[in-house]
């Protein structure tokens, strides 16, 4: 069975929801405001209201201070959902406190990650053209929310202590940003690199990379950095993936990073401080034992996040929903919508 919801075709939502009845026992809704059509992604309500089977909604964003429209949509979506899944304890707490949701309705299931081996970066670098370099990595869709400007501002102080450093930025510009302004944002980053005189120390891989190539970049990295400026971010797939590769991580203290990097699993730096970021990067690059210890602790924590473990947790949720109880049933089928 295959059905397609075109983002901006409102009639697709109710039509697809109606077609699912009798075919599947439950629906998985992946919710992020920007991926659904309508103002603030409001068309998702057309879909969920037309369902005659239970929905389990995974919330990728829970805003502490939503607009009135965002709050109204999320509140209704929550009311229409049989269960809610969030990927961090902080997100569950926010749902309970800011949205008055009974925590009995909420399941915490971590962001899924691939089951990667723990390898030494030096074994991978030559194949990527960074042999002999100390590699700092960021990846993901490019946009102002990633804080890459902060990492670039920190780079000269890092290069002063580690002249072989190469900061690799992997990923295409976010398509919504491209639609609004083309590649103007990437051009601003390139101009910043040039103004700092860091052309020999920054490499842009300016395209979407597949799973195999992304894995190679993660394994080649000595340090992974997420310098996000918005501190209320409750999930980061890039941070999760870096931990799955056993990389030492330096991050600003956004909500998800504080939770995942606690207990010595990474290093947090003050937001908006290139000096603080440079100090942390230099400390890790200059101390192999520290770098290895951070990576090992991150890797060990990520074992509960590998896809096989996450899928078992989701399966238990869906079995309980389809059975109408918390007792898991090993049969039935489920449909997923959203991305």
Please name the defining characteristics of this protein:
single chain; 339 residues; alpha/beta; five-stranded parallel beta sheet; 14 helices; 11 strands
The dominant shape is globular
Trace the largest sheet across and list its strands: 7-6-5-8-9-10
How much of the polypeptide forms β-strand, as a percent range?
5-15%
Secondary-structure content class: alpha/beta
Number of strands: 11
Distance between the termini: 18 Å
What's the order of the H and E elements? HEHEHEHEHEHEHHEHEHEHEHHHE
User: What percent of residues adopt helix (DSSP H or I)?
Assistant: 40-55%
Question: What report would you give on this structure?
Answer:
It is a single chain. It contains 14 helices and 11 strands. The chain is an alpha/beta fold and 339 residues long. It has a 6-stranded parallel beta sheet with strand order 7-6-5-8-9-10, sandwiched between helices. Strands 4-3-2-1-11 form a 5-stranded parallel beta sheet. α2 packs parallel to α3 (68-80) and α6 (148-161) crosses α12 (274-285). The protein starts with 9 loop residues before the first helix and ends with a strand.
Secondary structure elements and pairings:
Layout: H1 10-20, E1 26-31, H2 43-50, E2 55-59, H3 68-80, E3 83-86, H4 89-98, E4 106-108, H5 122-125, E5 134-139, H6 148-161, E6 165-170, H7 175-181, H8 184-196, E7 202-205, H9 211-220, E8 223-226, H10 237-244, E9 248-251, H11 255-260, E10 267-268, H12 274-285, H13 288-302, H14 307-323, E11 334-337
Parallel strand pairs: 1-2, 1-11, 2-3, 3-4, 5-6, 5-8, 6-7, 8-9, 9-10
Helix pairs in contact: 1-2, 2-3, 6-8, 6-12, 10-13
